[in-house]
Design goal:
- The protein is mainly alpha-helical.
- 51% of the residues lie in helices and 5% in strands.
- Helix 7 runs antiparallel to helix 8.
Amino acid sequence: LSGFSSDGDARRTKNQKEKMTGAMESSVAFKLAHPGFAFHARRCSSGAVTDIEGQDPKHVNKCFIGALAGRRTLQFGREAALWSHLQSAYDEFGAAAMGMDKAAIDRDDRQNFLASVMASGTAASAQLQKLQVGRGGGKPIIDTSGTDAYLRLSREFCLIHFSKKLTLEQRIESASYCINMLRFWRNYVHKAHGLKLSEHFIARQTYENMTLQLHSAILIIKAMAERCPSQQCGLDKTGSDGNEQYFSGMVGAGLLLNNKRNITLLDGLQTMADYNLIAQWEVDTDVPLEVRRRHRKTEYQHARHEATDGDDADLSGYPTGGEMEGQFELG
């Protein structure tokens, strides 16, 4: 099982899309047998599955939330999806009730993944819904239903990859929901009088990155079910974030100290011996060692999107091919 991942580079994304949507014989195309499933991977003669391309889920979610705070006026169906709705709820109910800190609402750092998680959290959603109820039960103060629906898409996208509670069947259904909601939304804007995709819909690259990654997540589940059914399906390990953490540790004042800002391929290969040794120390039960520090802005905090009580889902309990297609239809 192999593939590639990128974090939004337009040229690589174009190549990825061409690989997964180009003409391919049905005997080697690896996909869900559902008319709404638009992407495919490749099954080699050996049985191995390759060409499952992907976008980094954290990067995609940052772009999706960034679109809400951008210059476009997103028209989510008949309702508008606006960052100002979040700001109004923040001013009305405060940081604690919203589950957002000031840096998140002010968008101080657009590369802050945790801030995008805060914005789409269940706490923020609850406060947006309160604005829907007017004082004394009258007319809503602000119609935030479009913004709430938009943020739910972001929340579902994150849960597909990082949830500890969703089963693999539920993740396929959620992925289908996100794919089809984006399609319906795009078609609505395209057909509606007075609306333009360039002004009232997310950027094309964000749309394509998100749909590609959602299809890839389903393909990974299907490929793992066939090739590695005894192993857990770690969708949280997909993407390029792990590589970026390794690369950042190889230079400057990272995990491996050196006086280089940029390194060559040879430099990278030479550092792998040190990385392997450190990895052995980290799993040594006699001498426990922790040397890697997680950057807070790259964390995914599950409690912001789902309940944390109860047992975690079994990610080695794979559905059959027919069950996957049924879950995709439900979504």
